[in-house]
Write a structure and sequence with these properties.
Blueprint (H helix, E strand, L loop, with lengths): L3 E5 L8 E4 L9 E4 L6 E2 L10 E6 L2 E6 L6 E3 L2 E2 L6 E3 L4 E4 L2 E7 H11 L11 H19 L2 H73 L1 H4 L15 H13 L2
Parallel strand pairs: 3-4
Antiparallel strand pairs: 1-2, 1-11, 3-5, 5-6, 6-9, 7-8, 7-10, 10-11
Pfam families: FHA
Protein name: Glycogen accumulation regulator GarA
Length: 255
């Protein structure tokens, strides 16, 4: 395995390692671009055919932009064209939309030796675990760089706002429901009271009508008033007309 490596920080290849077969005696270096003739093919329109080149100078790696349209970025800074820029261990490199991290295996080993606990000198190296952790961290950093964090924040704010509006709507409906429940006894009392008043008024009208009925009949129907004489006024005589006629004939003819 080469001393220097590039680790993908985004895309479906995130976490994959690219060996850089660089030596101090190699002048051509390692070319990256969209052309099939390059050492590392990145087939997207934002990458130039021959985008940049990596070379080793002494104990460090240099990167040269070959006049690309989108430029080459190191640690989020665009580097100058045709001017070598030195790269350090764990520096971030961006070519178009592709993001990488440079790893120096020698410095990586040195860091592991210095951070390894003295009580466990025979503990195996956790290179794979470390690479996995670095890949996950790079993926998170890549998402933040791409603006996904802003999108996540916007979604979170929208979700909180939606929950707040939903809570307010539920509180309003609950308040209206409670007010309706509280109004029901009052409306029922009013209805019962109005009903009682109507019943009393109807009873009064009925009573007044009953009291005034005989008097009205007496005034409007005089025949009914004088239809029958009292017994002490009525003259005494035959009970029927036939008897009365017989008695009249007897008085006339003397019989």
């Amino acid at each position: 395995m080469s001393r220097f490596n590039l680790i993908y920080r985004n895309s479906q290849k995130r976490g994959e390692r690219v060996d850089l077969p660089l030596t101090a005696s190699t002048s051509e270096g390692f070319t990256i671009g969209r052309s099939r003739s390059t050492d590392l093919l990145l087939p997207t329109p934002d990458v130039s055919r021959r985008h940049c080149r990596l070379i080793q100078s002494g104990q460090q790696v240099l990167i040269i932009d070959l006049g690309s349209r989108a430029g080459t970025h190191v640690n989020r800074q665009r580097i100058s064209t045709e001017k070598p820029t030195s790269l350090s261990h764990r520096d971030k490199l961006q070519i178009g939309k592709w993001k990488f991290r440079l790893l120096d295996s020698q410095q990586e080993s040195t860091q592991q030796e210095t951070t390894r606990p003295k009580a466990q000198p025979k503990q195996a190296k956790a290179t794979d675990s470390l690479d996995q952790m670095l890949s996950e961290l790079d993926g998170l950093a890549s998402e933040l760089d791409d603006g996904d964090f802003a999108s996540m924040t916007t979604l979170s704010i929208e979700s909180i706002e939606s929950q707040r509006k939903q809570s307010e709507s539920e509180s309003l409906r609950e308040s209206e429901s409670n007010q309706a429940i509280n109004r029901q006894p009052i409306e029922k009392q009013k209805s019962d009271k109005d009903k009682a008043v109507l019943e009393v008024d109807a009873y009064k009208r009925e009573s007044e009508s009953t009291d005034t009925a005989p008097e009205t009949t007496q005034k409007n129907d005089p025949k009914e008033r004088f239809q029958k004489l009292p017994d002490h006024v009525r003259s005494k005589g035959p009970a029927d007309s036939t008897t009365a006629a017989d008695e009249a004939l007897k008085r006339i003819f003397g019989g």
